[in-house]
Amino acid sequence: MDYLEIEEKVAKMDITLPPPEPEADRQYYFIRKLQLWMEEKKKELGRPLTACITTFGCQMNARDSEKIIGIMEMIGYEMTDSEEADFVLYNTCTVRENANLKVYGRLGQLKKYKKKNPHMVIALCGCMMQEKVVVDKIKQSYRNVDIIFGTHNIFKLAELLSLKLLDRPESKKMIIDIWDGTTEVVEDLPNERKYSFKSGVNIMFGCNNFCSYCIVPYVRGRERSREPEDIIAEIECMVKDGVVEVMLLGQNVNSYGKTLEHPVSFAQLLERVEKIEGLERIRFMTSHPKDLSDELIEVMAKSQKICKQLHLPLQSGSTRLLKDMNRHYTKEDYLFLVEKIRRAIPDIALTTDIIVGYPGETEQDFEETLDVVRKVEYDSAFTFIYSKRTGTPAAAKEDQVPQNVVKERFDRLLELVQDISAKKTQKDVGTIQQILVEEQNQHDANLMTGRTGRNYLVHFPGNKDLIGKLVSVRLVESKGFYYMGERIEE
Ligand code: SAH
Ligand code: SF4
Ligand code: F3S
């Protein structure tokens, strides 16, 4: 359903009756209740109410925040970047410890705003909230938080807000609603895309891989795929609304569809998405090397729309560590896979994630990682210092690598990765590329910024009318990680 259809349904809700049963309708009912409350409140205050949503973490969270903003805007809140707002929400990430620390720091700072505006509502959601220790700490030390919910029940936001604002406005009691898991995928709730021309699309939720260092399976629950029909319908709707590029999202898109009643492979899903008229570009992430099929490589090679870009997390180049990490591939398997992909799609851009300092990592193990980086020559790589996550098998290991050793290795890896990226960016200078224009350059208003199919950033002289359009640009100069270009009139 598109925004207008949902809006119409919401407007028809009769709030004198008890809330209806089907989950989406139930939420439309609470949105309606809050809309009516909002109208009164606006009159009373003589101003609109504002909401500030901050997102930490990955693309899944970014997409969830679009859903949150969609609900808040439909209720009637005005979005703002200032935390001096009537509603402040942090959509949190817990994949590494520093993501956690940021949230606590920010929460502390909110105290002064809440003092000024006692009716301010503070809400927390996202991956951190799925950890009991976190919720306990907030209950103890951050009493000014009003609402906490998790990753499985984002769709309930209007209901929880209604409970807070309409049913018990004076109560100081925190509303906490965290689910351990869910089999439910609630479709057809409002969402507000950050960009008008590109969007993330969830194709699956959760993760079943339990890599030994990773907390995601614990906070996002078991893997669930959406029905292909629902995915296609959502993308068709977006395309009607101006979207030309989609990013299909899942923790391991290569295992998409295996658990559906009528199983569908990820490659088959891509073939169906490819057929959507008006859609120009398809991207996806993340692709786990262990499940990447020949069928997928074939579909990518012959596709007109799938971008020649693949994010293929390596994590480590040491077969010994990969085994311990529960990744189910060896160094050789990974290199063989890269070779196979490059043979089928020679100009593909490859990116990766690498962890440095996994427990027990020796100099020899680390050298293996450097070796893979040298051999594969990634277009870019995200490098992470291993972070101990409570409850994961790796956290219980005794041979944690000393911090100074990790730091030294991290710097070496980063230097190598950056040298290779800079070299790679030289390669395409002089070529003409199709660019999806995304925004005005933040430092120079005469420049526009866009991305090539291989996901490289390009700045070129142009005007704002080009935003959301695909244009041809000649890459004039490489600046290490991005290009300067000039537009070629077709
Ligand atoms: N599902 C994706 C990754 C999601 S998390 C995949 O399997 O590739 C994104 C990245 O964070 C991971 O690829 C990994 O490199 C990094 N990461 C996850 N847990 C981490 C930890 N405990 N410490 C450091 N980095 C971690
Ligand atoms: Fe984490 Fe591994 Fe799942 Fe990726 S595949 S989210 S790294 S457990
Ligand atoms: Fe972080 Fe959750 Fe994504 S832990 S990386 S926001 S799935």
TrEMBL record:
Enzyme class of the recorded protein, top EC level: transferase
Binding site for [4Fe-4S] cluster 2: 207, 211, 214
UniProtKB keywords: 4Fe-4S, Cytoplasm, Iron, Iron-sulfur, Metal-binding, S-adenosyl-L-methionine, Transferase, tRNA processing
Domain MTTase N-terminal: 49-166
Note on cofactor: Binds 2 [4Fe-4S] clusters. One cluster is coordinated with 3 cysteines and an exchangeable S-adenosyl-L-methionine.
Keyword match Cell membrane: no
Cofactor(s) of this protein: [4Fe-4S] cluster
Domain Radical SAM core span(s) in chain numbering: 193-423
EC number of the protein: 2.8.4.3
Domain TRAM: 426-489
GO molecular function term, any single one: tRNA-2-methylthio-N(6)-dimethylallyladenosine(37) synthase activity
Entries under InterPro entries matching the protein: Elp3/MiaA/NifB-like_rSAM, Methylthiotransferase, Methylthiotransferase_CS, Methylthiotransferase_N, Methylthiotransferase_N_sf, MiaB_methiolase, rSAM, rSAM_horseshoe
Catalysed reaction, written as an equation: N(6)-dimethylallyladenosine(37) in tRNA + (sulfur carrier)-SH + AH2 + 2 S-adenosyl-L-methionine = 2-methylsulfanyl-N(6)-dimethylallyladenosine(37) in tRNA + (sulfur carrier)-H + 5'-deoxyadenosine + L-methionine + A + S-adenosyl-L-homocysteine + 2 H(+)
Residues binding [4Fe-4S] cluster 1, per UniProt: 58, 93, 127
Annotated localization: Cytoplasm
One Pfam entry name: TRAM
Subunit structure: Monomer.
Function field: Catalyzes the methylthiolation of N6-(dimethylallyl)adenosine (i(6)A), leading to the formation of 2-methylthio-N6-(dimethylallyl)adenosine (ms(2)i(6)A) at position 37 in tRNAs that read codons beginning with uridine.
Family label: Belongs to the methylthiotransferase family. MiaB subfamily.
Protein name: tRNA-2-methylthio-N(6)-dimethylallyladenosine synthase
Provenance organism: Jutongia hominis
Record gene name: miaB
